[in-house]
Amino acid sequence: MRFSRLVACPLAILLAASCGRGELPASPAAAGPDGGTLVIASPGDADNLLPPLAVTIVSREVTDLVFDHLAEIGDDMNTFGDAGFTPRLARSWTWAPDSLSIVFHLDPRARWHDGQPVRANDVRFSVALYKNPKLASPIAAALANVDSATVLDSLDAVVWFHAREPESFFDIAYQLWVMPEHVYGAVPPEKLATSELARHPVGSGRFRFVSWQPGSRIEIEADTANYRGRAKLDRVIWAISPDNDASFAQVIGGQADLFESATPGQLKAISGHSNVRAFPWPTLQYGFLGLNFRDPKHHAQPNPVLHDVRVRRALSMALDRHAMLQNVFGGFGAIGYGPFPAGLATADTTLRIPHHDPGFAAALLDSAGWTAGPDGMRRRDGVPLAIRLIVPTSSAFRMRYAVLIQEALRKVGIRVDLDAEPFPAFFAKQTAGDFDAALITYSTDPNAGGAAQSWAASSMIPAGGNYLSYADPRFDALLDSATASFDPAAAKRYAVRAYQVIADDVPAVWLYDLTSLGILNARFHVTALRTDGWWAHLADWTIPTADRIDRDRIGLGAAKP
Asked: From residue 289, how far is each of 266, 428, 493, 511 by CA, in Å?
């Protein structure tokens, strides 16, 4: 369901013209023995390597590969009950008759990368850590229905829930990466984010951490003694480069293998380069212009301009979203419909959102007291109508949007001061709420409850991912009803009503669904791609022996530990 729109024409037409060797191969017959190196040309760095605190995409990629869940969600991304989930650290599980607890039976073969066995006390520790307010994990809100975990014996952990809910299993299995108590329990939760452990993770996944040179390189390698079998690739390296063109050049030149954020022009440019092909994958990401409800310098006070819904609505109506989409993405962009990607099961593409009408936008600004002067720019009581828009220079798409937004808002008398910086500085301002407006992309969970992490009042910064400090109790209540419903149809109805509340409050302008298009070296054989991350099955990617290059033949040492 989620995949079809992303691979449909006209994108398919573009790919047919530019794919080099053609569509992504997944032929196991062509796969060789274990080995090989994947180098990812990444425009951004990790923020930290602790699963409960990882926010950036690179952090997620690394932690997802180094740590394990108790059970793994299926490729269909079902979130009701445990259908489709497969064993990971837990080789099986037993529900209580009242569904208020689950006993997870751990795989006795599972080991941490330092050689210690994975035990039930690690599950207990991890649940308590995620929920500890001193850690301030943005994922804590997603574990609200999880009460605690207890230990039956060394290999059996019991997870307890506050209430019987349809997504109880999803909550604990999908949101929690189990962490070793003997490693992370030695540091107070409030100090973990700044500790060395945040830079040197110890997990149980099929890849193990090797090194991190901030701003330059992250490396992981196959855990050759892993209880689920070693990763088929030897190593994965993120080569950090904030320059989009430089990253593209590295993949074309063979210094790197994968570039995740290609522009339409770059995709067209790979035609004739037989060593690379287009790499599209489905996502649960969406992009928007976020409007801060708080004063960026005085968080206890409302934003002096954007607290007024008339101004937010005028700002939205001044922007021609479809024209900007065409300008930035060409003929294969996907318009945003609300606080969700269109591929989400609860998505609704018929929400009432402000339509493009610059004349009505001007009237709204007049009614709010912002009147145009002789120069066409608006003021109220002598104060210019101006907002500061932050944007990461590492994103060619968002940089282009920023310029278009600045020009469109100037035409209705709003001054936009662009604050463009490399991703680390941008991200620091985003997480601190230091902006009036921000061009943001969110990657949401595959359920309706995932929106709580970005839009619920309980997720406001600094503890959560609600960077706009948006709050509406109607939204929170409707989303709670959606996640508590055992009827998928009813859950969607509640979720859509919640989305409409947000649309009416206009905390954002919904710009696009992120159509992820990358470029991949043709020697890789790729397995299935999942909507919550192309890297979900990376441990099973292969390189045929005949296609290997020098860095694929470096090999690994003896089995570890």
From this structure: 25, 17, 26, 7
